[in-house]
Design goal:
The protein is of the alpha+beta class. The chain has 21 helices and 8 strands. It has a single domain, classed as Cytochrome P450 (Cytochrome p450). Helix 10 packs across helix 12, helix 15 crosses helix 16 and helix 15 packs parallel to helix 20. The radius of gyration is 25 Å and the shape is globular. One of its GO terms (cellular component) is membrane.
Length: 507
Amino acid sequence: MAWAPVYVLTAILTTVCLAHFLSRTRLPPGPAGLPLAGNILQFPRKHIAASLGSLKNIYGDIIYMHVFGREFVILNAAVDAVELFDRRGSRYSDRPRTIMAGELVGKKHAVLFHPYGEELRQHRRLLKSAFESRRLAEYWELQYTVSYKLLAALLKTPEDLMAHLRHSAGAFTMRIAYGYNVSDGPEEDQFVTLAEELARLTAKASSPGRWLVDSFPALRHVPSWFPGAGFKRWAINARKITNEFAAAPYLHAKTAATAGIRSFVSDTVDLVEGELGRPLTKADDEFLKWTSASIYSVSVAINSSFFLMMAVYPEVQSKAQAELDAVISRDRLARIEDRSSLPYIEALIKELHRFRPITPLAPHTTLVDDEYKGYRIPKGSWVMANTRAIMHDASIFPHPERFWPERFLPEGAGCTADPREYSFGYGRRRCPGLSIAESALFISITHVLAVFKISHPVDEYGHVITEPAEFTDEHIAHPYPFRCTIEPRSDAMVKLVAQMVSLSSDI
């Protein structure tokens, strides 16, 4: 009888170990890891999306990894991302807790990082109302004006392409978000400078696996003066810039609203106090401040990608220009109503989204334990749709490494999949401003192609300098710095730009 407690204890330990083993074997396949540290050695530090996608050849479409207790489930196939994020959205709509980006840098109130719940649902409804179809025509007119000014700037100083793209993106987003008119002087506008710096800091702060504090949250309490706490000092500076950009233009918008200047901020306040019949709460105020700060769009990234692709693939540029010349008369530039008559341009836009997606990874978090295809997906896991791998799935997009808009046309591959179904996010986290972003891209691309020829630069000996199509591996991916030559196609187009600028409304 003296041995009875030992037998009982042995049985309990055996049961616990067996249960742990069985639960582990039901996880998706993945590389074997180290005790405690897990897959710290296998988790990629650079080219994250591409590296995770390459593991598909070894472990399949669904891969499990863990690093210091943090669990990752990587989805490399569209069918799995759609099933989990769209059809099972109530279980997969949370965002991972990011200590660096969300708490230390202070982005936790932004829609992108906000945890899922009733508060987020209410605020997304407000966003949807602000971007609904009855406002689109107003946004289009503003986008035309911004585009005309971009063309004029490129005619004047084409070598300053990136500065012009940042200014153009800032002019549109600051106007619709805050009712703020970006200055057109030689110096870059203060808010555009802040917005660009904030985008850079956010990309760095939210990079998966970059910060040890994300795996060991207790490190957030380490004082900034402590040896080895450089991450804390970096976060303090990033938080200062984040708060400055969230607060300053927001206060401008509230002041401008009293003068009758409309913006996303004023429209949302009117909606809450008017149609919903309730006063603005502190949560509403925080939402407005941080959502407005998030509206600085990915347009700089995708527009710079467009210029690079046109230089690298001149045959694509020529086909797009031939279509524009055949459909649009020479005395005007394309408008939204021309879109249905420009199938090659539409295919080009799809291919821009597909070839190098601006958001290569889409991290969600499970709210509950779930089971899918016989695998256990633990509650709290980082479930990441590998959008880059999805866009390069040869079974959906043939010859994925080829930049080939014809794949979306009947005479090409006849591909019916639309990359925009994945590039703007998934399920209940899908970007609510999709229609605005798409119209801005269409207007910008058609106007630039009508006016300019884009090509590789040449050296002093007349030799072509070939720029590689290489992209960063950040939260918002964009081309590495590159050079291209931007020249007007004709004197008539130069005159047309001047005419359109003079006739457009001021912003």
